[in-house]
């Protein structure tokens, strides 16, 4: 998929969730459509505050299912009364909001089009460093749109990064179908040098490396880990989608790595960095996946314990080789997805729980819901600071926070004030820490397709 349309109804919490979905899709290279009829997927974020609202949601879902290629329904009504959409014969996938990006992305490479240019979104600069990939995965439709890798020069990408910093970027997100193969088309693996050069740009900013397939980075993983260790500007974060813990399934997927290569990448970063975040993806229910293959994936997840995990149920994409394979039943895929998602929450929750009581240097990246902001520590872990305005915290700030709690997939933190002992308002601000991150503003409809 390459284009999306989102409609959001309800409170500020729903609007915040839609912003998260859009950010993830944009990071994956997807772009907004002009309207639902032009979109590859339409996403309906629902409200269920009163019966009239429910009827409106069902009616809008029916309309969207008739005019768009694929419909995803999320939000309050999807979770509380999801069966009503099936009873109304609405052809839609019902998902929790944080499952939507991985479902839409479907385990595929991000789609960076030939005309992709750097984008400044608040203080976040998105820098596409190349287009296309070197893979030929049997389930991926993206390759039809992007072709083989095409890498602009290091100098060209560094100048684009410098322009983003001068325009106010505090975080540069290096993106591509597969950042690990940057430069392969020119006969050289240039990613470590490119990252080193970007980190040398004058200014105070952080750099996040986007998705790099294990097969692409394996040949440079030792050099890459050294670059991470040498540059504090780089978030100690790697997104390396393994997709399966079974070599048999990886072969059928036509992935360019096997499990041992993935382990070697992880072990190298473990050796070089005191703490780092591993992000990875699993596709559950690939047509040739047996119960034993699924168990191997579960075992691998439990072994390497990534701090960010995307779990996607396999779905066929027209024109791909995997679409011609005899698929598994929907019940099997749902059961396996449920089991892996439960293990995911256990692993991720454990990681964030371990942060409680510790102090971290963070960058405030964007506004959250209510009067909160979202921050990232050096390992790109998300820390929420509440009552930001009262604390004088703004997007783009660098500050020190102490983690006071967590909510499975992110942490809560309080700024550490160096002059707290002499600040007469400090106690009052501390008393506000228990306030809710979000305040229900009542039903409201917002439509976003841009």
From TrEMBL:
<comment type="function">
    <text>Catalyzes the methylthiolation of N6-threonylcarbamoyladenosine (t(6)A), leading to the formation of 2-methylthio-N6-threonylcarbamoyladenosine (ms(2)t(6)A) at position 37 in tRNAs that read codons beginning with adenine.</text>
</comment>
<feature type="domain" description="MTTase N-terminal">
    <location>
        <begin position="2"/>
        <end position="109"/>
    </location>
</feature>
<dbReference type="GO" id="GO:0046872">
    <property type="term" value="F:metal ion binding"/>
</dbReference>
<comment type="similarity">
    <text>Belongs to the methylthiotransferase family. CDKAL1 subfamily.</text>
</comment>
<feature type="compositionally biased region" description="Basic and acidic residues">
    <location>
        <begin position="426"/>
        <end position="442"/>
    </location>
</feature>
<dbReference type="InterPro" id="IPR002792">
    <property type="entry name" value="TRAM_dom"/>
</dbReference>
<keyword id="KW-0408">Iron</keyword>
<dbReference type="GO" id="GO:0035598">
    <property type="term" value="F:tRNA (N(6)-L-threonylcarbamoyladenosine(37)-C(2))-methylthiotransferase activity"/>
</dbReference>
<dbReference type="InterPro" id="IPR058240">
    <property type="entry name" value="rSAM_sf"/>
</dbReference>
<dbReference type="InterPro" id="IPR007197">
    <property type="entry name" value="rSAM"/>
</dbReference>
<feature type="domain" description="Radical SAM core">
    <location>
        <begin position="119"/>
        <end position="354"/>
    </location>
</feature>
<keyword id="KW-0808">Transferase</keyword>
<dbReference type="InterPro" id="IPR020612">
    <property type="entry name" value="Methylthiotransferase_CS"/>
</dbReference>
<dbReference type="Pfam" id="PF04055">
    <property type="entry name" value="Radical_SAM"/>
</dbReference>
<dbReference type="InterPro" id="IPR005839">
    <property type="entry name" value="Methylthiotransferase"/>
</dbReference>
<protein>
    <recommendedName>
        <fullName>tRNA-t(6)A37 methylthiotransferase</fullName>
        <ecNumber>2.8.4.5</ecNumber>
    </recommendedName>
</protein>
<dbReference type="InterPro" id="IPR023404">
    <property type="entry name" value="rSAM_horseshoe"/>
</dbReference>
<keyword id="KW-0819">tRNA processing</keyword>
<dbReference type="InterPro" id="IPR038135">
    <property type="entry name" value="Methylthiotransferase_N_sf"/>
</dbReference>
<dbReference type="Pfam" id="PF00919">
    <property type="entry name" value="UPF0004"/>
</dbReference>
<dbReference type="InterPro" id="IPR013848">
    <property type="entry name" value="Methylthiotransferase_N"/>
</dbReference>
<keyword id="KW-0949">S-adenosyl-L-methionine</keyword>
<dbReference type="Pfam" id="PF01938">
    <property type="entry name" value="TRAM"/>
</dbReference>
<dbReference type="InterPro" id="IPR006466">
    <property type="entry name" value="MiaB-like_arc_euk"/>
</dbReference>
<feature type="domain" description="TRAM">
    <location>
        <begin position="353"/>
        <end position="417"/>
    </location>
</feature>
<feature type="region of interest" description="Disordered">
    <location>
        <begin position="415"/>
        <end position="450"/>
    </location>
</feature>
<dbReference type="GO" id="GO:0051539">
    <property type="term" value="F:4 iron, 4 sulfur cluster binding"/>
</dbReference>
<keyword id="KW-0479">Metal-binding</keyword>
<keyword id="KW-0004">4Fe-4S</keyword>
<keyword id="KW-0411">Iron-sulfur</keyword>
<dbReference type="InterPro" id="IPR006638">
    <property type="entry name" value="Elp3/MiaA/NifB-like_rSAM"/>
</dbReference>
